[in-house]
Amino acid sequence: MTEPDFVRRTRESYDATADDFAVWIRGELAAKPFDRAVLDVFASLVSGPVADVGCGVGRITAALAGLGVDAFGVDLSPGMVAAARREHAGLRFEVGSMLALDIASGSLGGLVAWYSIIHVPDDELPAVLAEFHRVLAPRGYLQLAFQVGDEPMHLTSAGGHEVSLDFHRRQPARVAELLETAGFDVRAQLWRARDEEGEFPERTPQAYVLARKDFAKQHER
Q: Within 10 Å of residue 192's Cβ, how many Cβ atoms?
């Protein structure tokens, strides 16, 4: 099967920026109290292994592990995975695509996609959510984080590197609708204003949506 162009461009872009990105992002979670709170709630709910899909350099995988979660990371970019292994020795990181995860059906207690569905075009997102649904156990939890908006943004440079990245901003209500269609029960939505100051300013408001694989819907499908 031919690889979609957005997959190739995303991989190449993050391969180009991986080492510098690992240095830049190290202090980001410490500066984001809402992010930490969302991850803390997620960690308190899940039971069993958790995949951090689109893990980048592994900071969310490591944060979850620090909260007692059996977490491992998956990322499209070999460069990002190599950086994650250096940054967080002892944790497991694998190269893989959210379009076709090398994870057994129904085997995960939870899945986190932390600012990773942002690179997935609208017409591919239902297939990605279906794949997340497939790998989760009944009543397994899915935590999404993404930028809020209605129009995509295209970047051609990042950190002094040439890239070609599309950022698909979305409204939480629309993402919730897609999750319901995919067989999830949406449990919580959080919208917050963008951070305008500090080392990690943001262009848009941010959203977090927590969903659970619906046991009843699983048996209806």
A: 16
Three-state secondary structure call for residue 176: helix
Structure tokens at 91: 């944790």
Task: Provide the Cα torsion 170, 173, 176, 178; round to 10°.
Answer: -60
**Rg of the chain (C-alpha set):** 16
In the numeric block, the tokens 């080392």 are attached to 199
DSSP reduced 3-state for 167: strand
Splitting the chain (221 residues) into consecutive groups of 10 residues, what average pLDDT does each group show?
87 91 92 96 98 97 98 97 96 97 98 97 96 98 97 78 86 97 97 90 95 70 46
Cα 185 from chain centre: 18
The closest of 44, 84, 82 to 61, measured between CA atoms, is: 84
What's the whole-model pTM score? 0.94
Distance, CA of 135 to CA of 72 (rounded, Å)? 14
The answer to whether 100 and 130 are in contact (CB under 8 A) is no
